[in-house]
Amino acid sequence: MTQLNLKVLGSNAKSNQVVFLAKLEALQESKLLKDYQKASILADGKEKKFHFRDESGNLFVYIADESEEKCRKQGNQLFSSLSSLKLTEWAIYLEANEERNYAFIEGLKLSSYSFDKYKSSKVDKSYEIYLSGLSEENLAEINSLCKANFTARTLVNEPHSFLNANQYSKEITQLGQEFGFSVKVLNKAAIQEHKMGGVLAVNKGSIQEPTFNILEYKGSNACNNKPIVLVGKGVMYDTGGLSLKPTPGSMDLMKSDMAGSAAVVGAFCAIASQKLPIHVIGLIPATDNRPGLDAVVPGDVITMMSGKSVEVLNTDAEGRLILADALHYAKQYEPEFVIDLATLTGAAARAIGSQGIVCMGNASESFKNSLKESGLAVHERLVEFPLWEEYEAMIKSDIADIKNIGGAAAGATTAGLFLQHFVDYPWMHLDIAGAAFLTSTDSYRGKNGTGVGVRLIYNFIKKRTQLNGTF
Ligand code: BES
Ligand code: MG
Ligand code: ZN
Predict the structure, then answer these.
(1) CB within 6 Å of ligand 1 — which residues?
(2) Which of the two ends of the chain, N or C, has the fewest CB atoms closer than 10 A to its terminal CB?
(3) Best mutation site among 236, 345, 394, 439 for ligand 1 pocket (most ligand atoms within 8 Å of CB)
(4) What's the domain range around 346?
(5) 139 found inside a domain
């Protein structure tokens, strides 16, 4: 892992080299800059060079006056240059506005993730970076958010040979101790007592037991009377069960099927380390989905925790079964609202690809708009899909209350409609199937687990703490 130690540049901080990030005017005014002319040419963008070094070895970075996302990407470009510049200590003078400075450093830091636990040779580099132009507070937030995002990425990147449901509960418990939230783990016997028929049905073909994880964080002076509940799909590995998935490009990526729950864990890490004044509960049903000897067979009817009967016609539509029990479980908290995150459908991934999240729900327009604004702010963008009741007909069952698959069309919507049967509170469902796991590198999001959802949920919950009432 590359360590980027970001610190606010104090007056007495020593640094060998200088990175200067500024607009043209700022470059010209700066006392640091000796070679004004060269900088001017570069800074007005004509040479379209990202950075250059002057005779004294100082490095100058030009950042265009553009979107925050562009700044994050430029942060990523700087990260790529760090190793070739062979310097371990830097000062970065940020002279754009606070938002763009934030985005640039966020992009830089988010780029430093790597997962080499199973590699014989490990990346072991460390950079000291002193910053001006960013408050202590904002820097602490960037550090917290990146750490939380990396935690989610690592949980996704861990193979199932290590991270089964039981190990996952241990990891979440440990993270709770480290970051400051409580974790209660229900084992199989407790899950049976609660009659969580969806979780038990998905787990039936596995020799490994399921867990149901309850996370709780209550900041002092929590601003909400009713808790906010975050639900995450924790399918530790999705073989499809007896409705087995093909291997290449499908089952072989399915260690990532717990990415929704990893985002919930990551969001808890960020919220707790920033000590937000909020009360949040996290619910994570965890199991693998396997075609073992006693596996649920297509055509079986199961009874969910809510009492609803479900005809399981495709064992690969397992996520909605475990989420339904968690969504039902959430009712006891009389939540202000519930957001679930899940790698739920290939249909959502096919519809919008890896650059966004499909969302749907029964929450108010103002709530939805605020969530979408958070999506734009952190560049984890949301696209709303309908929950039109006409499609309910597609999940009607001949012999049970509902069935767990719709038809060839509107697959993300029929999954959402299924979940809606188990909620009685304001709710949004985020299908992150496309954005959770990348098979090729994409700037600061990197490759493999992206930790998508962590920055989004943090941004949204933080916004809630700044409101007087609800959205
Ligand atoms: N985990 C998958 C969804 C998925 C697909 C996530 C691709 C990430 C990338 C989910 O459990 C699943 O198998 N869904 C089925 C549902 C279908 C059988 C109704 C799907 O989308 O094919
Ligand atoms: Mg599946
Ligand atoms: Zn799945």
Answers:
(1) 238, 257, 314, 316-319, 343-347, 349, 405, 411, 433
(2) N
(3) 345
(4) 144-465
(5) no
Q: What is the DSSP string of 236-273?
A: EEE--TTSPPPTTTTGGGGGGGGHHHHHHHHHHHHHHH
Residue whose C-alpha is closest to residue 397's, from 316, 269, 311:
311
Q: Kindly name the residue from 100, 188, 290, 320 that is annotated as catalytic.
A: 320
- Per the domain annotation, does 470 fall within a domain? no
CATH of the domain at 85: 3.40.220.10
**How confident is the model over 12-49, as pLDDT tens digits?**
555 544 555 555 455 555 555 555 455 444 445 544 44
Helix axes of 411-420 and 319-330: crossing angle, nearest 10 degrees: 30
Q: Point out the domain boundary residue: 100, 134, 168.
A: 134
Which numbered ligand comes closest to the C-alpha of 298? Answer: 1
Specify whether 13 is located in the same domain as 68: yes
Q: How far is the CA of 391 from the centre of ligand 2 (A)?
A: 21
* Local confidence band at 144 (pLDDT 50, 70, 90 cut-offs): very high
Q: Which ligand is nearest to the CA of 239?
A: 2
CA of 328 relative to ligand 1 center, distance in Å: 22
How many domains, in total, are found in the chain?
Answer: 2
Same domain, 301 and 409: yes
Structure-block tokens of residue 275: 């000590």
**Cα separation of 123 and 111, whole Å?**
14
Same domain, 116 and 188: no
Q: Which residue has its alpha carbon closest to ligand 1 atom 14?
A: 345
Domain co-membership, 341 together with 424: yes
* Cα–Cα distance for residue pair 433/427, rounded to 1 Å: 19
Residues 159 and 56 in one domain: no
Kindly state the average pLDDT of the residues 376-393: 98
The percentage of the chain sitting over the pLDDT mark of 70, rounded to a whole number, equals: 87
Give the active site residue among 23, 147, 245, 447. Answer: 245
Which is it for the CA torsion 21, 27, 31, 34, positive or negative?
positive
* Domain match, 330 and 437 both: yes
Same structural domain, 179 and 129: no
CA separation (Å) from 147 to 2, 143, 458?
13, 6, 13
245 in catalytic set: yes
134, 162, 196: which is the final residue of a domain? 134
